[in-house]
Amino acid sequence: MYHTWLAQRNVIRRLSMEFIARHSELIPTETCDALVALFRDADKRKVTAPGRTGVHVDKKRKDSTDLHSAKVPEKLREKYSTTIEDYFKRLAEAHRAYTERFTELQYPKTFEHGVYSFNIQRYYPEGQAYHAWHYENAHPDVAHRVLAWMTYLNSVEQGGETEFLHQALKVKPEQGLTLIWPAGFTHTHRGLPHKDGLKYIITGWFEYAPRGRRA
């Protein structure tokens, strides 16, 4: 099982100080490449859109092109169903490892964490990035977000790091590297611009929802 493999490889690092899980070998290259292909297929069908912060497009804050899961056409869902299923199966194992490390997240038992959407984002070099410092549950409408997650779908040589403000930490984009971190203000972060090529990520949240609800 993936979970046993995760524990044996000790892929959760420095959690007691940062509360940021980093899984470097969780998502295989072929899965990352297939998710990029999904984005490109969707882009050809013109169902991608400029990245938003809340309900607004503000390129001074966030400059990207996004594919929200709700916009993925049914034919593409079918074409990439194996890829999507594999990705979220592996992500679930990382989440399980996180909540076993921090058992407080397992309560109350009336509720469970679910993933109900995802967002694939593309950034062009020399300027595009999520420029603004932000955290993931900063509005009453999204207060149910508990943990954020993200996987870099390709490696970036220069720049493009995810910078965490209070941890004084910059994480370099490496294909397959997956992060999980708390959604609150303690983990205020931003994305930095990069020099060359395209940058792709997939991201979303583990959210509270009544037990039994399914994505």
| Uncertain stretches | none
- Give the count of helical stretches: 5
Tally of individual domains: 1
Beta strands, count: 11
CATH level 1 name: Mainly Beta
| Shape by Cα distribution | globular
CATH topology: Jelly Rolls
Largest sheet: 8 strands, antiparallel
What would you report as the Rg, rounded to the nearest angstrom? 16 Å
- The residue fraction in helices comes out at 25-40%
H/E order of the elements?
HHEHEEHHEEEEEEEE
> Span between N and C termini?
23 Å
| CATH-derived architecture | Sandwich
- What structural class do you assign from the helix and strand content? alpha+beta
Q: Strand share of the residues?
A: 15-25%
Mean pLDDT: 90
CATH superfamily: q2cbj1_9rhob like domain
InterPro entries: Oxoglu/Fe-dep_dioxygenase_dom, P4HA-like, Pro_4_hyd_alph, Pro_4_hyd_alph_FE2OG_OXY
Keywords: Dioxygenase, Iron, Metal-binding, Oxidoreductase, Vitamin C
Domain Fe2OG dioxygenase: 114-208
GO molecular function: dioxygenase activity; iron ion binding; L-ascorbic acid binding; oxidoreductase activity, acting on paired donors, with incorporation or reduction of molecular oxygen
Task: Write the SSE topology.
Layout: H1 2-9, H2 15-18, E1 21-23, H3 29-44, E2 49-50, E3 65-68, H4 74-79, H5 81-101, E4 111-114, E5 119-123, E6 145-152, E7 162-164, E8 169-171, E9 178-182, E10 189-191, E11 199-210
Antiparallel strand pairs: 1-9, 2-3, 3-5, 4-11, 5-11, 6-9, 6-11, 7-8, 7-10
